[in-house]
């Protein structure tokens, strides 16, 4: 005779209905929809700029009312606007921006990493006050001090020089802040072991801190690059001749006094967007890691 008491749990504990298995919760669906909407709001203006760079200037606002698929897509792209860029100063401006940004990243990382190491590993009198001044420095908009700083640089004969364009971007308070917080997360036991092995403080910095800080260095370097790449007010004040014009200033100079060739302007904007876009997409994981680990300690 079968044991009905022992069979009862086996009969009642069956699989869940197929309709409810694997169904995501409502909160996750709503968050996904909100994220997609925010991403679309950021992407659509870029798509509109790219599409209008492939159209004649006369058709720039032709498909805005009513808004349809032709507003953001074109079936007859032309490259006339990009060909017309050859007759402007944008090419020279992009090369100057690349040079200024590259030198800023190399020299700025050396300066900011050294300062962050001194503020994190070395304990000296007043190091907290120095760090507080650095934090306050990146809270002040650079444009607020650009004009008096430009007068000072003119007195030093640094106008229309690459040195004058590069110097303000070397000491970045935000980069020092991120690097210092990342350095604080490095175990002190490693530093003590290095010191016992005979390493100087420079050796500790070079052999322990820098190899472990690649994500933070990548993130700080990306910030230094973007600061110089998108700078407009400072290069406008300091680079007034054709040899030292940068990309954003060259793009603004393409705008006429009485008319604007929007197709040409959009083509120039796309060219200026491509370089930082490629760099950000290639290094985005390092930037996210540097920001996420900035508050570990």
From TrEMBL:
* Disordered, as annotated region: 1-23
Output compositional bias ranges, type Low complexity: 8-17
Q: Which residues form the ABC transmembrane type-1 domain?
A: 94-283
User: Is the keyword RNA-binding in the record?
Assistant: no
Q: Where are the transmembrane segments?
A: 29-50, 98-122, 129-150, 162-183, 204-229, 262-283
GO BP annotations of the record are: transmembrane transport
**Compartment(s) where it occurs, according to its Swiss-Prot or TrEMBL record:** Cell membrane
Its domain of life?
Bacteria
Indicate yes or no for the key word Cell membrane.
yes
Under the cellular component aspect of Gene Ontology, which terms does the record hold? plasma membrane
Fetch the SUPFAM superfamilies from UniProt: MetI-like
Gene3D superfamilies in the record: MetI-like
Key words of the record: Cell membrane, Membrane, Transmembrane, Transmembrane helix, Transport
- UniProt topology in membrane: Multi-pass membrane protein
Give the family per the record: Belongs to the binding-protein-dependent transport system permease family.
Give the protein's recorded name: Putative chitobiose transport system permease protein
Q: Which species does the entry assign this protein to? A: Nocardiopsis flavescens
């Amino acid at each position: 005779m079968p044991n009905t008491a022992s069979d009862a749990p086996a009969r009642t504990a069956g699989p869940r209905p197929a309709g409810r298995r694997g169904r995501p919760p409502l909160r996750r669906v709503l968050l996904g929809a909100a994220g997609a909407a925010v991403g679309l709001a950021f992407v659509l203006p870029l798509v509109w700029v790219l599409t209008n760079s492939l159209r004649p200037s006369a058709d720039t606002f032709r498909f805005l009312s009513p808004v349809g698929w032709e507003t953001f897509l074109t079936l007859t792209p032309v490259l006339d606007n990009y060909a017309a860029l050859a007759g402007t100063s944008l090419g020279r401006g992009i090369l100057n921006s690349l040079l200024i940004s590259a030198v800023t990243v190399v020299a700025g990382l050396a300066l900011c990493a050294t300062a962050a190491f001194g503020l994190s590993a070395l304990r000296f009198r007043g190091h907290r006050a120095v760090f507080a001044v650095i934090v306050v420095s990146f809270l002040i908009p650079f444009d607020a001090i650009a004009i008096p700083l430009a007068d000072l640089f003119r007195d030093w004969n640094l106008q229309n020089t690459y040195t004058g364009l590069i110097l303000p971007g070397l000491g970045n308070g935000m980069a020092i802040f991120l690097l210092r917080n990342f350095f604080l997360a490095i175990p002190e036991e490693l530093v003590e072991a290095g010191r016992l092995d005979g390493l100087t403080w420079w050796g500790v910095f070079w052999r322990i801190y820098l190899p472990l800080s690649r994500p933070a260095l990548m993130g700080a370097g990306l910030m230094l690059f973007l600061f110089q790449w998108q700078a407009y007010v400072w290069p406008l004040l300091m680079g007034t001749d054709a040899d030292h014009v940068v990309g954003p200033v060259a793009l603004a100079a393409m705008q006429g006094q009485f008319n604007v060739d929007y197709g040409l302007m959009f083509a120039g904007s796309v060219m200026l967007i491509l370089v930082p876009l490629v760099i950000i997409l290639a290094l985005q994981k390092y930037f996210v890691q540097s920001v996420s680990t900035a508050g570990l300690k």
